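Hi C.,

You asked whether I'd gotten around to modeling the 341-residue construct. I have! Everything is below, sequence then structure, no commentary in between.
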Amino acid sequence: MSLSVSESLAKFGFNPQEKVNSETDFKNQLESYILHVFEDKPVSNRYSYFLKNGKIFTEGNQEFFIDPEERGGYSLKGTLEAISLSLDNPGKLIFLYSPPGPVTFTAGTKYDKLAPYPSGQLYIMTSDEFSNRIDAIAISVSREVEDKVLGLLRLRHNSGFDDEKQKIIYYLTHPQLFYGNIDNLINDLGIFLSKNEDFLVYKNVRGERFNLSHIISFLISGWRKELKSEEPIDYDELYKKALTDPKLAYLGILYARSGGSSVPLGGSCGGSETNPSEIEEILHGFNLLSTSWRISDILKSQDSDKYGSLEFECPHCRKKVKRPKNTLIEKCPHCEGNVRC
C-alpha cells in the first residue's frame, strides 16, 4: 500500500518523500518527530541552521526547505526574514510567531487534506557572528491563551485583524527583535513568575497541561538539547530501515510506540491519529512484521540506556551496583573503588 504526500501528512504528520541525506540529520529528525508529533511536547530541542553561499543548511548539511505552498508562501517568507534579522543582530533573540489556523490559503496543494493547525508555534532564534550558525527552538502555544502569551512577550498586535488570514500573514511577516539572549529571556520569565500567578501555555492532545513554569524548565532543557523520548528508541535500527524507505522509520516508530492502538497525534506538522491496521498493511508489504525485523527491536530495553546496563558488578568488591539512567558514576558505593560506569 502506498501513501501519497497529502495522505501521509494528514494522517501521520510526515512527508513520505523525505530524503535521507545523513545519518545524524535523519536521527535528529526522527527524534524531533517523536517529541513533537507523537508525544506532543510543548518545547523542541534546540536545532541549528548554517549559512553557506547565501543558502541555509541544517546541521546535517541538508539544504533548509520550507514548502512555498504552505500558507501561501508566507511561512517561507517569514522564516527567511527572521533568519536575516537574526544574522544582522548576532547574540540577540528573534521571535517569529506562526498562529493557529489554515495550513493553506488556496485549494489544490498537498495540504488540502490537513486540518487547520490547532495551536500556534513560537520560534526563537539567535545567530553566532563567528560561525554564521543560527540556533532555534520552538514553543507550542494553545489558541485559548495565545493573547496572554503574546502579550507577555510584547508580541501582540493590538489593532485587531479583519480575518484569520490577515492575522496569520501579519505575524509570519513581522519577526521581532528581543533585546537580550536566551539567559535574559529565561531570567525575565522567572521574574514574571515570581510576581504573578502561573498560567497555562499549552494543552496537548493527551490532555496534558503545561504552565509557564513547565515551559521555562523545558526551555532550559531544550536549549541544552537534553529533551528525550519517554521511551528509549533504537535510532540506529530505524536509520537502517530509512535507507530502504524513509516512511518505514516513521511508521515503525508509530506502530511500536502506540502498541497497536489508535493514538492521537499532535504537533504542527499535520497528523490526526495512528491507524494500526493501515500501518500494519504497509509494514507487512515490506515484510517488516516478520522475524526479519520485529517492532520490538526499535524499542530499547528499559534496563539499559546510552551507557549500557543500569546494573553491573563492581570489578573490585564484586557487589551489584545500580546507577541512574543516562548517568556515569565514578566510584562504587560499596567499596569506593574507581568504576567509571
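If it helps when you're writing up: The chain has a mean pLDDT of 82.

Thanks,
B.
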